Amino acid sequence: MGRRFAVDERAAEQVFATNDPAEARSLLTSVYVPHELRSRDGLPLNFKIRYLESSRLTLGHVRYGADSEVLVPPMEHCYHLNVTLAGRTMASQGGNSVSTAPGGTAVMFGPERPRAVRWSPDAVQYAVKIPRASLEGQLAALLGRPVDRPLRFALDVDLAGPHGQSLLAAIGHLRTELSRTGGLTESPLVRAQLESYVLSQLLFVVPSDHHDLLREVGQRVGRRHIRVALDYIDEHLAEPLAGPDIAKAASVSVRALQAGFQDDVGMSPMAYVRSRRLDRVHEELLADADGALINEVAARWGFFHFGRFAEQYRMRFGVLPSMTAREGRTRRSR
């Protein structure tokens, strides 16, 4: 028979142990997802799980204590990360297989395909269930736009490098804090921040079909880059300018430049270019002693459609360009 108990009556971490495969399967189904559990050597289980649940993820510390295989149909509504802490496992999904050992490789399962995991008798894992709404919601917050389809992750996750080590540390820290009686995570705000940190780590560390977009988010430009871009625009204002030219000068991606301009300048880079060119037209109309035609000044600064130019000018300065030219002539005649 199984034994369910908590380390502390007030603790969030629950503990369950059993040698009955049916009880182990039932408990794991209730905590994680429906699955089939097979014993490969016919020996009794020595199953134990310690787990914590929140609205955004489930963290479990799991062992089977026997040569076992877990078969899981498509999960549909969640992602799953397995981090081997002891022993070895062999995981497969979508025609790919990964062998895991402590400190080497973890596995990240997507929601759309069945999976299988074989556990050695001494294997112990962190098993992290992340609802789609949690992970995709975190990604949407990072990208600043909705995410309307499941993410596709690489099955294997490198834990040996510094990024993988940071992910492990983040998961371990969250588990420690969630299990701490009377700790800071009793504050919903603190808990949400720690959970968001782990979710962001997952998104940045585990290769996926959104990785390039996330790297660009990671390149969100600081004010120094914006200043370089602004200076570059002013220095080349009379030349053909395009977004990629400005991004290259500022050493950031086009998408990161767009985001940085929206945050710091309040408009896109090309809208800023148009605004600065309108300023130059305005200055020339006020100061031009040669009496150049308005359309000639406009064309010199890249405005070739006079009607559109006149409307943009009026929106910028509150008057038509002809009124500015008249004011300039009046000033010069004094």
Automatic annotation (TrEMBL):
Protein's UniProt keywords contain DNA-binding: yes
Alphabetical list of InterPro entries matching this protein: AraC-bd_2 (IPR035418), AraC_XylS_family_regulators (IPR050204), Homeodomain-like_sf (IPR009057), HTH_AraC (IPR018060), HTH_AraC-typ_CS (IPR018062)
Pfam families: AraC_binding_2, HTH_18
Gene3D superfamilies, alphabetized: Homeodomain-like
Domain HTH araC/xylS-type: 227-327
UniProt entry tagged with the keyword Cytoplasm: no
SMART domains, per the entry: HTH_ARAC
GO molecular function annotations of the record: DNA-binding transcription factor activity; sequence-specific DNA binding
UniProt keywords, alphabetically: DNA-binding, Transcription, Transcription regulation
Listed PANTHER family: HTH-TYPE DNA-BINDING TRANSCRIPTIONAL ACTIVATOR EUTR, HTH-TYPE TRANSCRIPTIONAL ACTIVATOR RHAS-RELATED
Protein name: AraC family transcriptional regulator
Source organism of the structure: Agromyces albus
